[in-house]
Automatic annotation (TrEMBL):
GO molecular function: cytoskeletal motor activity
Sequence ranges assigned to domain Flagellar motor switch protein FliN-like C-terminal in this UniProt record: 254-323
Pfam families, A to Z: FliM, FliMN_C
A single GO BP: positive chemotaxis
Family indicated by similarity: Belongs to the FliM family.
Family matches, as NCBIfam families: fliM_switch
UniProtKB keywords: Bacterial flagellum, Cell membrane, Cell projection, Chemotaxis, Cilium, Flagellar rotation, Flagellum, Membrane
Species classification: Bacteria, Bacillati, Bacillota, Bacilli, Bacillales
Protein name: Flagellar motor switch protein FliM
Subcellular location, principal: other
Entries under InterPro entries matching the protein: CheC-like_sf, Flag_FliM, FliN-like_C, SpoA-like_sf
Membrane topology summary: Peripheral membrane protein
Organism: Paenibacillus polymyxa (strain SC2)
Amino acid sequence: MVDVLSQGEIDALLAALSSGEMDAEELKKEETQKKVRAYDFKRALRFSKDHIRSLTRIHENFARYLTTYFSAQLRTFVQINVVQVEQLPYDEFIRSIPKMTILNIFEAEPLEGRMVLEVHPNVAYAMLDRLLGGTGSAPTKVTALTEIETTIMERIFSRTFDSLQEAWKTVLDIEPRLEAMETNPQFMQIVSPNETIALISLSTKIGDTTGMINLCIPHVVLEPIMARLSTHQWFTSEKKSRAPEEIDALRLRVTKAELPIIAELGESRINVAEFLGLSVGDVISLNKPVKEGLSIRVGEKLKFMGSPGMVRDRVAVQIDEIVNEGVEEIDE
């Protein structure tokens, strides 16, 4: 990666060159020499920029779904946004989160392995306070959860995985489910300390309370589907073919669908006084001659032309002409 100098560094470099503290010729010689860059094998870069961009897009949708879900559940102002998507060792993630926090450990079939949704105590306790009838304020002191509080939090956070499932549909149909909830990071060891993880950080605001929600996804979990996280694969919609039994079931349902068929002899317009004065034996003139065919409609669409008749002492209509698709009847 090419280092980019800040404006302050550029100004300092120009000042040193103008004052004679640095020689331009020496800088040129240094550029020609081979440079050695230190590489930390504990921070192995296993996610490309393409993968990071795809994960960002996926979890921006996740943030929008979470905002809608929490707003409905808590009945208050909620705002959640993706702040950063980065890769780092699992051990560094554990050391960066509070000693007392809410850790939702979950799996997402068909992916193999466990992931973590870490919720900052300010956010988690604000949700709990709101659900129990409070204003949604953050606690002054974080204490251990009671059994009732644990049950409430498990219920609300287990439903957040529906939003995660919806956000991942463009890449893979996953079925996330909550396995356990922990409060001490030291008791949670889902991968080895040096394993690279993708950390998705979501800034969360609930009323006046702010905090972070972090989603930790180990590289070993995403490794089988890394190809799907590339940009061209992410935007390609897979064409799903229907199974033969689905086609047969669909055909059967269509054949049983009922449609109204109407044979119109013609139309006529009369005023209200004429309508009220109708009696047995009166004749109403239609807008079509007797010899002209009948308009046969399926639903509201004109589909056939026919002629009236009798079949076994019952009134019937014989189809004489099929009207082409898309042709509408023209009023005269």
